[in-house]
């Protein structure tokens, strides 16, 4: 409840306030402690006198010429002409660069500023020569409010119940009806019916509380209002703002930076370009912001190892009473049984769409590649539609002091991880905050280990030195520092979905190929809309996200390109790029469910229809062997499973002795058990040899893992001890006792003792067996669970 809003008519109290104050919105927001990042600019246009006769119903079209920065529209028999000059004029700013609009400025205009308008006036006659002869009625100069990214400011702020509808950047009239509808839905339902994140006020992080930074970004927006921004274009104003301590190292090694939420992050290192292939440059717009270094970094990560500074990832910590219940309700993959170490989570909207794809850790910190993260300290509601009654909350706070270094590279089945093992010797353990957690990203095995073995979450103060030391240490083994464009190429080959492109609130997880993530018991936001838990089950999707392989490798789709079958458009591209391992141009698009792999389609790339084919995914490593790991680990797991099966079969006979308390077991019972062991120790000798060979091979595999594997040495040594104990016990005691019992040459009392001894030893082995190889069962099972949720489709 907002109380005590003082007006000339007295105080006003309200549960909901909508700040629709136009250029006054920033000042009104400050009254509630809300930063609305808008800057008023003086914008000019002129009106001419009528200069032509026109027939009834005859009109000139609206004209815009971005190259000349001008626009025209008809006004009676004359024209309105304006534009966006290169030297803009922010208006009514105080000494702190904060808006200070006069209180009585209402329905007024500014003084004419012909010198500033001269560039626009000269350009107008180049496009419409009659402008040299037309009489100008007047030059109108008035303030317009602009945001730092040229999009609206809509939605609920960090102050509960305080909504904003402002910052319309001179084109708000075009969205007026839609704005009213969206804000009304936001207030009444807790969320809009469409994805309007690009206009959500929460997209502006705490760095936009700086008037200087806000002004620089808004000024760039105004002065480049008509510029054509090619795909991959990065704005430059106010940079660099937020950098990791490794920034100087990145700069010194030819980093080409992008920017996300104010953070400088590496797109690629131009120093890697000589190792790439310039002939792969995409044609058209896709090749405007591109480098052969992307392919070189992709190949190095696939074949050897790559190091990525992921400090720009949003890091959110969910804390406070009810945090676990909050996640349980928010995420459709959450379960309390695994809440302490949960894999990838997909958050849901009330309509069943996807609202985020993020990762959570034991301390409930979410690390998300997406820039769509709330501001630090934002309070998020568990049940947005509820405007009354008890509300559950969780505090989302961003830890700015932490950065993430991640090493990616081939798992077992690929080349040896010598670069990883070498880098593991770096003395970073005093600084690392990592939980021994295996991660997969971009279709390569990625690790976060204690002591920064293969990756680490590090305090900012040590991250710069860690990058330099790691790259220097691993260079002789082929380790290469890489950027985000390589990650995007790698993930395309594995079919990993991108939030806000491949999956949005407008698609269900079943349409996006993420149905395997949805828990069947429901209980999360959107479960009812999805049909989860209903007798009929989820509705069959009418469309699905499909992988397309384009025939021309240099025709690269970037998003929103139409896809057609038989001349009929059936979908649009959600994301695309080039896969340097599969050497194909890859695109993803939602298409009718009946469209299967092998179907021929066409994609409109830069004005040309390119032949393509629907492909099965993932294109690279379809069985997940490179991510999960095969070879030694798989062999240990198979050997342990085989021995456990043999042990279980033996126990079916052994357990007959358990309920017996007498000293001598009945002769018929001993005959049954002894007969079994006589057969397995005589007639089944080939099987015995196989069992012995598996035991020896399992021990050898664990030793190999200790010598050259990725498992932490302490865990591997414990595995060896726990595995060797039962095997040695079997050879020294259990097998000789079974042979002797099978011969039945002893007294009944001695035979009874042998049977009980064998049973005890088998039960001991059964107890130890789940622990005998934790790196292949317990730890890796969690990894496999992660990998399952990492897969997309």
Specify the biggest β-sheet. 6 strands, mixed
Low-confidence stretches: 336-344, 356-370, 375-402, 412-440, 444-455, 773-793
Number of helices: 18
Structural class: alpha+beta
Beta-strand segment tally: 30
Mean pLDDT: 80
Write down the Rg: 33 Å
Shape: elongated
Instruction: Tell me what portion of residues adopts beta-strand conformation.
Output: 15-25%
Share in helix: 25-40%
Distance between the termini: 46 Å
Give your account of this protein's structure.
The protein is an alpha+beta fold and 793 residues long. 30% of the residues lie in helices and 23% in strands. The protein has 18 helices and 30 strands. The strands form seven sheets. Strands 13, 20, 21, 22, 23 and 24 form a six-stranded mixed β-sheet that branches. It has a six-stranded antiparallel β-sheet with strand order 15-16-17-14-19-18, with helices on one face. Strands 25-28-27-26-29-30 form a six-stranded antiparallel barrel. Helix 13 packs across helix 15, helix 15 runs antiparallel to helix 16 and helix 16 runs antiparallel to helix 17. 42% of the residues are buried.
In short:
By secondary structure, the chain is α+β, with helices and mostly antiparallel strands. The chain is elongated and about 125 Å long. The two termini are 46 Å apart.
